[in-house]
Model the fold of this input.
Amino acid sequence: MINFEATLKALSECGVNFVVIGGYAATLHGSAYLTRDLDICYERTPGNIERLVSALRPYHPRLRGAPEGLPFLFDVETLSNGMNFTLATDLGDIDLLGHLSGLGEFPTVALDAISMPLFGGEYRVASLDSLIRSKRAAGRNKDLNVLPELEALKEMHAQKEQTKPQVQTEPPQD
Amino acid sequence: MVPARQLNWGEIQKEARPLKGLKYVQRAMTREEHERLYALVQNPPPGSKMEAAKVYGVDLTLNLRSLTRTPAERVHEMEAALKFAEELRRAAAHLDR
Done:
């Protein structure tokens, strides 16, 4: 299981530009699904990749599920030459996604993201709309299974916002 | 209308207290909002996504309870459930030996 709070803080302290996506984003919006790994969409600029490497290197990232001893260098060059990485770290499992089905890359995902207060900081989290678009585009069974809940949640959020407190005004006194 | 005692209102207000000093503030759900959503979850409007989810097998009361909490509390609750599941798995593996 990922240490979510420590991971967010590590990324934030190094100034990494990222958006929380996937299962953790769904949970933050009120989903009841359980997830073990953290998915983030990261900005693919040279400066940000450098910051991302600095933030995660102390936690010894390696390729998740890869055979023991398979060489993997977590550095700027590796991240620059790739796009999406599924990693195991000392903090837990992290998926670094440079591109998301149905959404594209960081600038598009960040534009539609919501700023959420968490653990004394503030972090970008993919909007419910983005999550729904992404799950639909991915089209795998595990993504499609979550869609009914996410769409219902969107409706519940909308219903909640529609309910405004009734203001009672007293008739004027003569 | 749902009786107030079923909603455990005091607990909801306490748990959904807003975080202070930040740009985005998690607003506590009002009693009116909670009652309305509870009624909708029990009887979703025909053709709504809520109805579709319920038919699909989603327990929307879990989502409603989650919405009364702050995002950080939602994560903590999910992590506690995961920890419990892992403990059960470990115990089951121990029994298999």
About this structure: Residues 71-96 of chain B form the longest helix (26 residues). Chain B has six helices and no strands. Chain B has a mean pLDDT of 76.
